[in-house]
Amino acid sequence: MQPDLSCSYELSPAFHDLDPMDIVWHGNYVKYLELARCELLERFDYNYPQMKASGYAWPVVDMHLKFIQPIRFGQRIRIDARIVEWECRLKIEYLIFDAETGHKINKAYTTQVAVDMKTMEMQYVTPPVLHEKLGVFV
Amino acid sequence: MQPDLSCSYELSPAFHDLDPMDIVWHGNYVKYLELARCELLERFDYNYPQMKASGYAWPVVDMHLKFIQPIRFGQRIRIDARIVEWECRLKIEYLIFDAETGHKINKAYTTQVAVDMKTMEMQYVTPPVLHEKLGVFV
Amino acid sequence: MQPDLSCSYELSPAFHDLDPMDIVWHGNYVKYLELARCELLERFDYNYPQMKASGYAWPVVDMHLKFIQPIRFGQRIRIDARIVEWECRLKIEYLIFDAETGHKINKAYTTQVAVDMKTMEMQYVTPPVLHEKLGVFV
Amino acid sequence: MQPDLSCSYELSPAFHDLDPMDIVWHGNYVKYLELARCELLERFDYNYPQMKASGYAWPVVDMHLKFIQPIRFGQRIRIDARIVEWECRLKIEYLIFDAETGHKINKAYTTQVAVDMKTMEMQYVTPPVLHEKLGVFV
What we know:
4 copies of one chain form a homotetramer.
Chain A: E1 6-11, H1 29-43, H2 48-53, E2 56-57, E3 60-67, E4 77-85, E5 90-98, E6 104-112, E7 115-116, H3 128-134
Antiparallel strand pairs in A: 1-4, 2-7, 3-6, 4-5, 5-6
């Protein structure tokens, strides 16, 4: 049985995330995705410091965001993040909801690949440390 | 004949755009795309202030970025932006290059839709003002 | 007796707040101050939406930050914010601490003035709505 | 005779620098100061990469900004930056103007100290490399 590779993260936008339309500027969603991703990886003890300690950087190589509803100041949102690929790359899917109404706000994914920090070479399969941390069978 | 709907925009990353890997944090590319997009729309006299004056907001509803090479401090990059759809939505494609070597750094697109600022209703065809500004035949 | 015009706000820095030194970029502290300030003003029902509804904008006109220690990823920090002037302008003082050790990280203040959103005129005394919200005697 | 330790830097704000008041969010001025500072230090061949190569980091330890006028989209601004102290610390003063009218927009300073990147110790006098780069007599 595979472990649960998902988590939920809640936040309210900061004032400085708003644009002149009084809604969150679209580029700031990338920050929200990262907050949820770090929370998820933290659970598996493989957040940024542990990645670094393992000798691998994990740059984002692909990112897609579909904006369905705007986010306003004072609104509470929930980001559901889930790891959907880990064999050759780390792909995470995200759904952002209004935390109260449950209305869908955004749908996104990010893809990361492992880069050996000594050789700076991109890895075409993910290193064993990822599988160990996630507790998955490849 | 359709007009040339493209432009090039050059920049060097700011120190505050860098992350702990000493490369531009992936979310900051969204800012670079916007700089190129505003430059492109400015040429057609339909940048943010003119959009507002025309009664339409143009939120980004879809965005995809493929990261090919990192960007470093001191590096000069060129962003080629081109409008590829304008009938129902405004879709712009971007290619980011190293300005000196010509190596490809990033490939992206953004899609925007018109929203009537009075009714806040999304428009399923783009309003005439866009075609007039772009000088295109629909 | 004057009410307690202070609050504490805790956070951990996001990965995207870090710079190439692996510490929080100094400009991002301004965001942390704002988060604490909004939390404080929220308690008095005079956060950004209520300011707007009251007909006044409150731009920051003066800001000073003294950086004592860096902030690192994974570190928990506490921001103590306190309103110290409200008669002619709204001045807030901040102290940032390491939430665990209590070591001082930063000392700052911000000053805001009321601007009448209809006339766009700066107010040389703060409007009555501020005193009412704060529950202070002038 | 001491060399000219000043420079001017011009820019127009990006759309993503604006807040719901349709003016540049106050925290983004810190980015503008950094752009002018990097331009100034670049002239003396002592920008971020050369600092790093010299074995010193130069964190900002003190920062003050006085906001006089707002900055709007489409406005051209000029930042005059000038090194005013270099013996014990690197202090830079800034004046931001409207590039067309010459009206004053902001007055600021930043103070940086040298930190030896091997020992992580703060230096109470600036290292000789700074004087050599600036071409100043101490």
